[in-house]
Amino acid sequence: NAPNVEAFNDMYSRNKGTTALPSSLACDHLEVKTKEEILEGFNTKPKLAYNPILTDENWAGFSEKYPSVSSIVEVSTPGYSKDGRYAIIYTQSMCGILCGYADFHQFKNVDGVWVFDKNFFVSQS
């Protein structure tokens, strides 16, 4: 089965920029960083021109800058189907050059409550 196309397209269009996680959603073991702050950590060591996250040296630089952070988790802004029945979010976790995953998660609105519907695997290393 494929994800709901309307919800997927809405998610894609709503995530062209970046939005920080509201501090009200933060918890004790979560450090909220902007995309710029994250990339700044990777820029502390020499990097590949096209993607600073793809070298062990750059992960070492990130760990030096943010020693209490063991992984980076990215969660998209949700996208919704036009009828409001489906929502899709994208999640990605990175914890090293060969450590991470990415998935799309589809939810269904059942009597006003969002219920997990399906998972769509993207990648894992």
Q: List low-confidence stretches.
A: none
The N- and C-terminal alpha carbons lie at a distance of 24 Å
SS element count, helices: 3
Main beta-sheet annotation = 5 strands, antiparallel
Mean pLDDT figure: 84
* Helix/strand/pairing category: alpha+beta
User: If you compute it from the alpha carbons, what radius of gyration comes out, rounded to the nearest whole angstrom?
Assistant: 17 Å
* Elements, N to C (H/E): HHHEEEEE
| Estimated share of beta-strand residues | 25-35%
Please give the number of β-strands. 5
Defining traits:
alpha+beta; 125 residues; 3 helices; elongated
Summed up:
This protein is α+β, with helices and mostly antiparallel strands and 125 residues long.
Describe the structure.
The protein has 125 residues and is of the alpha+beta class. The chain is 22% helix and 33% strand. Strands 1, 2, 3, 4 and 5 form a five-stranded antiparallel beta sheet that branches. Helix 2 (35-42) packs across helix 3 (56-65). The protein is elongated, with a radius of gyration of 17 Å. The relative contact order is 0.19.
